[in-house]
Structures are given as structure tokens and as C-alpha cells.
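Team,

Forwarding the record for the chain on the shared tracking sheet. I've put the sequence and predicted structure together so nobody has to dig through attachments.
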Amino acid sequence: MKLIRFGKAGQERPGVIDNEGVRRDASSLVPDWAGSSLDPDALAALEKVDLTRLPRIPDVIRLGPCVGSVGKIICIGLNYAEHAAESGMESPPEPVMFMKPSSSLAGPADDLQLPPDSEKTDWEVELAAIIGRPTKAVSEYEALDAVAGYAVLCDYSERAWQLEGTGQWDKGKGYDGFAPLGPWLATSREITDPQALRLWLDVNGQRMQDGTTQHMIFGVAALISYVSRFMSLQPGDIIATGTPPGVGLGRKPPVYLRRGDLVELGVDGLGRQTQRIY
């Protein structure tokens, strides 16, 4: 099952995509795709509903982030060996964690405004795992049982803010719109192997990133288990699992986004995003 949220920014309502690819309004079923609505058991029960009876959503209506009431966006850095190398860093012995604020979330086709003094805004296509039930200190063996589903996330980064000043990475990662999520959340019953998904990203029609989650240093289950040692995970929390090689920072010479650029990206089974940069 594929979950969407639609409507004006800040006023999104829950929807689904039926087996024929038609968008449907699910407001009669759940208040939002948030909290207990994301529990894997609750989602499994909803799969028995005849979705074709739900009202149709016109295709012209905006899609928002596919999860509501997000508490935490936990990101994993340098989780592909080739990306670590292109960044001039060693592959880490354990996951590198940083955070993006929920205010950085955006819809999958929302325009992206560069920071006014942006010098080095970069792109990173990532697989996002969305937590569906409260989880703490979970074993790697049981970790995927906590997942509601998966979505595309683009981890935009202002590299000058991230790497050239003092402090942590977060300040280069948290600008408004720097975490477009969606277009949909595909449930964990639909994506049975998160380590077999292709990721790609184009800038102005040129392929920049083309990788597979098979090449993660730390797989999704290992990441959930690791993160849950240090903080409890709640429904709607997002774990962005890292990016394959091909970011602007790693090119010679480096290439960064400029106003007017078009970024397109996607992950197998999870749809595609499009952002016009302005």
C-alpha cells in the first residue's frame, strides 16, 4: 500500500494510491499518516479496505511530505564507502549520526529556495525508513518490525555551512525545504528488502548519482538498532540512511546548485521527486 498526503503546505490530508495508481482521499479512514496510524499492524488491516470506494484526488493537487507530525529526522552520514571516499573521509567504523529539523521537510515537487547567501548547496538522494511503532534498544533481528514503510528523501546540504565553519554538520543540513519527502510511503509489506533498491539523481538531465542500497556500509536494520540505543524512536520518526557517490562536493571540480537548476531523483518502488531551484 502507498500512503500520500495532499493539499496546501501545512494543511495536508491523508490519502492512498490504489492498485490502479489512482490517488484517493483517506480522510474517512485516518486523521493523518502520523502516530498510531503508522503502526504496521494498523496498516496491514487497512489493506483489506476497498480503496476504490474512496473519493478520487485530482492529479493537479499538490503532494506534501508523506508523513505528518514528524518528531525527528535522524540522518546517517558516509554510509556508502565510495561516497565517504569522494568526500575525502574514511569509511566510519560505526554509523555517523546527525539531525535535520522537521521544519526542513517539504513536498516531493515543491520548489527549493536556496539560502540567500548560499555558496555550495549540494544534493543527496537517500532511502528513508519511517518508524511505525515506539522502539527502544531493539535488536537488529527485530528492527525492521518497527518500520511503517519507506520513502525517498533528498538530503540537501549547504556545504560551506556544514564543513567550513565550526560546530556540527546540522547547521548545513537544516534550512527550510532541505528534506523533501515522498511522493509516497510504501509500506514495509510492499518493500520487503530495503537492501535491494536502486537510487538515482539527475541535475538538469545529467545523471549525477546512480547506486544501490545493497552497497550501504550499515544496512537499514543495523541502523535502526544502533540509533535506538541512544534515543527512543517514535511513530513518524525518519531515518535517512545515507547517499551513494555522485554528490557535487565529490566532483572535480565541485559542482553546486544554482538558481534555475532542475533536480530529479528517485528510488525503486518509491517514486520520484522533482525540485526546481530558485
